[in-house]
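G., before I forget:
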Amino acid sequence: MAVVWPSKNNFANGDVLTAANMNNIADTLNVFNPTSATNGQVWTANGSGSGSFATPVSGGWTLINSGTMSGSTITSSTFSGYNQIHIDLVNMNTSAAAAVGIRVNGLSTSIYGNYTQAPTSITAVTNDVTTSTTSWLTDALAATGAPYSKSIDIYNANQTTGWKVGWCITKSKSATVNQTNAWSMGYMDTAAALTSVTLLVASGTFSAGNYYIYGLK
Amino acid sequence: MGRTKIVHDENGQPIELPFTEEEEAEFDAMAAELEANRKAAEKEAKAKAKLRAAALDKLGLTEAEINALFG
């Protein structure tokens, strides 16, 4: 009898091509048909020698921009669809005594408010609120000290009603001056979904550090 | 030298550009506002410290004693 290879002619998605089909192999081949997958699907193994095409899990953090801090402002690329924005400013410093502010969507109008606390020493905590209507100030205005790190979160960033709120922590490893040891709540009174963020220092420049701007879908 | 700003190109790469005249004027105004705020906060802190020292004196307590009591 003539050998037919494979001995089974029609395979549906998920069918198993066996040794009997192949005549002379002793193992099993799993066959899948990639034309059955929809756009964007990926092959996902099930850990048991098989698997299926599936839509990748959506969401997660995306690095929007990163770089070395310099200049007086740093503005992100235009973005959309992020529910939360997270910014890390690592080992940063400024060339002059100045608070670091945030603006959203390029807005420099009176939509911002903040409440900032900064200890002037480790034990004595003093309210040290600085206000600016043209940006959310994330720390207190004080002399510069050792390099410090700052992390900022802006929530409900993709909502189109109400206002946006944010939270920022700032800490140096060693200095106790209040610019580098502060926590701050901010609000941004815009109903628009966020499409950009700008970091700024009103006096002088960012003189050290790296920035990382992330978005969460 | 004037202020500069970092923006990002279509590939997300940073580019440093000079401020426009309008941006310079706006940041000058903001710096002046913040400096005024700083001076006001400093003045308020000094006034509070003076008041605290007078109150401690009336109570006959030292700074360490009042901190031990109330933090």
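DSSP finds two helices and two strands in chain B. Chain B touches chain A at residues 3-8, 12, 14, 16, 19, 26-27, 30-31, 33-35, 37-38, 41, 45, 67, 71 (CB under 8 Å).

More on Monday.
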